[in-house]
């Protein structure tokens, strides 16, 4: 196995380090002469204009990418989006009308609930699109159309590179839809494409700071609970950061919409409780900072992830990780990197079986 891990101690670390390539490979074949071309979508501009609702259906981390892109499809392309975990969607008798597009996101393409949700959507006669990593998998074969993420084989149970590829695939789709529907200007598209192309190098840079995060992570090995807070896309990032941590380190952790804290979770904050605050959305920065103050007042130890330049956060947070500037819609792709590294090093520090956490499977093919 040592050879397969390419010199890394774990597949997870190897796969985290493959993310710059994964992102590049998923984006670059779909940008031609400064335009987004997603031939496999097989949809005319007319059909794209007629989409009146998107349903994103997935499980686990794939669901978190959909939760992120809801903000993007709605914010940028102004298409209403519903996001469901597949095991809920398939049993809730959703309203699927003409003009709906059901997007199923899955690394393996074999997750039982996601496949069942796809089959239900097809039976109900709506258009389906799979965003899938494994070529020729069940979801890839059965969806009307398939957009592949080019992450290559992923071995570690906790997904990292497939997650990153799913995110950028959805950015491309959202920009394409926004453009066809006249919701963004050519200049805005040009700027977003430039930001997209910068992501691989920015991710590379964040990965290169791993020793710093390792040192910091070692302080959390004895933690019993960790809370992740954020607003908007930062809430979506928090959900994935929290899932990564709990699945591999077995530390109880919860993600909370920062503004919702005072309706419950804040009662759990005690002296020294670690809180990870994600604050990449500049429009929400002040609001999130006030939530950081709330938990600090109750004794929390706060690690913040924010954009370069937001140094005022240092007045409240105990430890700050900066991510480089990008379009606010793409922040998840950068902010998740330190959170993946953090989870990884906490789990390694605790001596956990990082690549094969107890009770979890890479691909859940039973309901
Ligand atoms: C399992 C994996 C997760 C993954 C989820 C959905 O729970 O451990 O990492 O996000 O299944 O898998 P899929 O293959 O459908 O993306």
Based on CA inertia axes, which overall geometry fits?
A: globular
* Broad structural category: alpha/beta
Fraction of residues in β-strands:
15-25%
* Helix residue percentage: 40-55%
The SSE order reads HHEEHEHEHEHEHEHHHEHEEHEEH
Largest sheet: 5 strands, parallel
Radius of gyration: 20 Å
Spatial gap, N to C terminus: 31 Å
Please state the average pLDDT score: 96
Protein name: Glutamine--fructose-6-phosphate aminotransferase [isomerizing]
Catalytic activity: D-fructose 6-phosphate + L-glutamine = D-glucosamine 6-phosphate + L-glutamate
Main location: cytoplasm
Active site: 362
Report on the structure:
The protein contains 13 helices and 12 strands. Helix content is 43%, strand content 17%. With 367 residues, the chain is of the alpha/beta class. It has a 5-stranded parallel sheet, sandwiched between helices. A 5-stranded parallel sheet has the order 9-8-10-11-12, sandwiched between helices. The chain is globular and about 55 Å long. The structure holds 6-O-phosphono-alpha-D-glucopyranose (G6P). Residues 59-62, 106-108, 111, 114, 157-159, 360, 362-364 line the site of 6-O-phosphono-alpha-D-glucopyranose (G6P). The active site is at residue 362. Catalyzes the first step in hexosamine metabolism, converting fructose-6P into glucosamine-6P using glutamine as a nitrogen source. Keywords: Aminotransferase, Cytoplasm, Glutamine amidotransferase, Repeat, Transferase. This is Glutamine--fructose-6-phosphate aminotransferase [isomerizing].
